[in-house]
Amino acid sequence: MKRYQATLGALPKLGMLPGPALREVFRKGYGKQDLAHDLLAGLVVAVVALPLSMALAISSGVAPQYGLYTAIVAGCLVPLFGGARTQVTGPTAAFVVILAPISARYGLGGLLLASLMAGAILVAFGIARLGRFIEFIPHPVTTGFTAGIATVIATLQLKDFLGLRVPGAPEHFLERVAATARALPSFQMGDLAVGVFTLLLLLAWPRVSARVPPALVALPAAAVLAILLAHFGDGFHVATIASRFHYIVNGQTMAGIPPFPPRPLWPWAASGAGGEPLVLSFALFKTLVPNAFAIAVLGAIESLLCAVVADGMSGTRHDPDAELLALGVGNLVAPFFGGFAATGALARTTFNVRSGARSPLAAVFHAGFLLLAVVAFAPALGMLPLASMAALLLTVAWRMSEIKHFTHTLRAAPKSDVSVLLACYLCTVVFDMVVGVSVGIMLAALLLMNRMAESVSTRSLTDTPHHTDHTVPRGVVLYEVAGPLFFGAAQKAINVLESLHEATRAVVFDITAVPVMDFTALVALESAIQKLHKRNVLVVLAGVQPQPARVFAKAGMKAIPGKLVLCKTLAEGVARTRDQLGAPTPLGVPKSA
């Protein structure tokens, strides 16, 4: 019991108590006016999230209600436990490229299970305080895989936008493009007309009104157009949610989405691919681990980047570790109610801030309004055309691609950054997001190591005019090493020793300008010192800074009379060298103590 109380007492110090953003709001005071602003913002965001959640579920390969369940459950839990004040959580377009192959191969059950595993990984990220490390992901990597995801999402929408009859569900991008191209003769004029009408209205409406979300106008208008085409058009048929998706109640098959709230279920009890039962096994978990890790990493990146944008708009400051922990909780719980992977949604968060949200309760209210819409308006939602949903996601993909920023990077960035950008983009499109991010980060890391190696300089001061304090006796070589010594640069700095003259009696390294070094640099340095010792050459490390001094101490590196000298300044190092070699001290130079 005492141990349990001690653990609880340590939590506030660790900053791991749930809901720091909500607690801060209540601590500063929360009144009726704040509540009114949050209710209005929640309603506006729900209007935006309603069609998006359904469209993203369809693109992920599952029925539209599961996208709503994700937005309801995760959208309620994450703001309650999170560290961002105005962020909205739900299904996002970035996940489609990961989730669609999972649902195609393992069905809804595999999708829910992968989301559950990703939630556990995110909780571990939060507990390990990895939130701040997200900012170290290079910008070309995030730009590249985001543009790649946008390309894949746009390609996925062509099937419903054109009303194509594409046999099967190809997993890979090139196969999908080929299958879509072969199916072009099967396009339906009714779906194309509704899709184009919706797309034009979505693009034009912001010029009419910036306050009313375009989807609130475009999608109902598209539904009306679909009804008119089906009634008056000769042979026109427009696919809708009700015509494509069904659910079973008391043994009866009903069209559309079920008009009741998300119900508890075991994620692994949901159907697998083709409606077959999902066989739970260690092999299945092992297969889903890479997908779950990809969901967790992408969710963490997108959520924290979204939180940064929200902070800039609202003047707040988020807690990244608490946000990761809350995101993990949301993804852990949502699969038990039919929800899949969720993260911070930039468009919904933007609407939330612009609508006057004051606290995380606005996001909670958005989830409540979505729940009300499912229960009260399910039949009406079933009338939405699939082509209009595809048009909505095409606009999302266009905004997500940030084509102007992408092309600006190609023109203005260094060639190394451009190579990272293109590699990440192409790998994301041709293979998947996991490969794209992995290749991008590895390539960026290699380029960083090369830049660090180039930033480290080693020059000889032996024949350079300098202060008399640094005058060295004959047979002594003086080198200056400048820059951080990491694994990419350490060997370059040590290689200068290969050209030492046979008459060299001592080597003085001035490492005053070396602020940090890692273990690889230590190993390279120790190896060089051993080689010099075999030649009976004295080694002096002068100007040792605090961090390298700690590395030396931890490795047990100590001064060895006649072999190794460690000192804090170059002047002291030169004086100690004279003492060790028995050389005379020049006039005006103090002797070493």
Protein architecture, described:
The protein is of the alpha/beta class and 593 residues long. The strands form 3 sheets. Strands 5-6-7-8-9 form a 5-stranded mixed beta sheet. A two-stranded antiparallel ribbon has the order 1-4. Strands 2-3 form a two-stranded antiparallel ribbon. The longest helix has 33 residues. The chain is elongated, with a radius of gyration of 31 Å.
Features:
single chain; 593 residues; alpha/beta; Transcription Regulator spoIIAA; 2 domains; 5-stranded mixed sheet; two-stranded antiparallel ribbon; 22 helices; 9 strands
Quick synopsis:
The chain has 22 helices and 9 strands.
Blueprint (SSEs and pairs):
Elements: H1 2-14, H2 20-28, H3 32-59, H4 64-81, E1 89-90, H5 96-127, H6 139-162, H7 173-182, H8 189-208, H9 214-232, H10 241-244, E2 246-249, E3 252-255, H11 282-314, H12 320-333, E4 343-344, H13 346-354, H14 361-381, H15 386-401, H16 403-412, H17 415-430, H18 433-455, E5 457-460, E6 476-482, H19 490-494, E7 506-513, H20 519-534, E8 538-542, H21 546-555, E9 564-566, H22 570-581
Helix pairs in contact: 3-4, 3-13, 3-14, 3-15, 4-12, 4-14, 5-11, 5-12, 6-7, 6-15, 6-16, 6-17, 6-18, 8-9, 8-15, 11-12, 11-13, 17-18
